[in-house]
Write a structure and sequence with these properties.
This protein is an alpha+beta fold. It contains four helices and six strands; from the N terminus they run ααβαβββαββ.
């Protein structure tokens, strides 16, 4: 289980560069050295738009014109979507449509949605929780340095005794 975001930390590690910022990729070097090494339990995907962003959807030219036109006519078709995969399952959460669950081992083309089936309720819940945890963990991270967007601000403390420093 690898993701495109794993390329950056791999190249940085090869170059011996450490980054001051937080990123969510993981170097692939351990897997390249040992193909049996565990890299990730889950891989995540996200994309799409909200209905409120319809006016920003691309107005593409050939060969993407028909797909773009569908999105213009019915923004729900390109609505926000987040997905999580493990070695066996895919779980897809859509903003404007029902969730989906696929057992890729028996349905590699993901044609048979198993969401809502009682025998797969635990799997759907596990995948949903993994997706939600990933969203919480990767959203709104604290910047590594303050930079010009977060200047130091020194304010008098209540009672005027000690200054309070804030970013």
């Amino acid at each position: 289980m690898v993701e495109l975001i794993d390329i950056l930390p791999t190249v940085l590690e090869l170059a011996g560069i450490t980054t001051p910022h937080r990123h969510f990729g993981r170097s692939l070097l351990p897997v390249l050295r040992d193909p049996d090494a565990e890299h990730r339990t889950y891989a995540f995907t996200e994309g799409g738009f909200t209905i409120d962003e319809e006016h920003q959807l691309e107005r593409a030219v050939f060969p993407y014109d028909l797909r773009a036109q569908l999105g213009q006519e019915n923004p729900v078709l390109v609505g926000k979507v987040h997905a999580v995969r493990d070695r066996e399952w895919s779980y897809v959460w859509r903003r404007y449509e029902p969730a989906e669950l696929y057992h890729r081992a028996t349905d590699p083309d993901e044609r048979h949605n198993l969401i809502g089936r009682p025998e797969h309720a635990d799997t759907a819940q596990r995948m949903h929780e993994a997706l939600f945890t990933w969203l919480v963990d990767t959203t709104d991270v604290i910047p590594a340095d303050t930079g010009p967007r977060l200047p130091d601000v020194v304010l008098p403390a209540p009672g005027g005794s000690f200054p309070v420093r804030a970013h």
